[in-house]
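Hi V.,

You were right to ask for the full record rather than a summary. Here it is.
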Amino acid sequence: MNGSHNLNTPRRAVLRAIITVGFQRAPYPWRFGWRPLLHRFGIALSAFSFLEGGKHGLYVSPDYQNLDMSEKGATTYWYGMAFAKLIAQSKLGIVWLAHVDGLRASGALTTTSGSSKRGDLAGRGLNNDWHVIEAKGRSNSYDQSLISEAKNQAAAVTQIKGVAPLTSSACITSLHANPISVLLDDPPPDDEAGPVSWEIEDNAFFDHYYRGVIDCLREFGTSRSRTQDGTEFVASPLLPFYWENFGPPIRPYYREWRLELGLLRRIYENPSSAVEAVRDLSTTKDKKVGSDGIALFGDMPEWEGAEG
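Predicted structure:
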């Protein structure tokens, strides 16, 4: 996979990536309900505010530079996470990507070290292969020291469930480039920063990964059965109060939008069945259904000005 590659990133795929990373949350002594989803959905909408399509691909609008530094920092962070998820799925076959801190808080992951100098994302493929990713987003240029730091953080994890990770990657998204570029680097690190070992309990991992989606489908109270390519999903309007109280948006071609959040019924009923449930899943070119069984149904126009 060495070299440069182009990745088709439909509007729906970016939205799915951002809110999927944000869906994952640990159990708390009280229930936040739909509030975490509303927060992540608001962040996801910023992708439509500042990402534009041109003849070379996706780029960040010049208006992005006018954001306050704190606003830009938060948005840059989530762009970095979203593109890491897109690249990890496309190039490394990582179906499930979860925040390590959330996994630790939920009890799904334990570590031999309390050090923060380790990758911030744990990934799992269909064949029980585990991966570590250190994801960063940058709106300005960066030097080799950032790459080395990210590689060392990822490589600090030397074992997951007693086996070396299949990959330990630095993933750095350059938002200043036109088109946006992502560096995915998995050679040996410059320095050994470990060793750190992770223990991950499979059922707890999948329960954590899907918990936010399942909670939202239940708490919206409007879930229904939906069939896509012969497979049954549980679906609900994505933030029904948003569409009812704030739609239609200004532009005419948005008026028919009514996005629905969906999840394979088999996973909805039993998250631990995720591996077998998604193994033969049919994903469509427009990315309505993700490889993890989470779907966004409904019409969505592509990037304005994009060619190809």
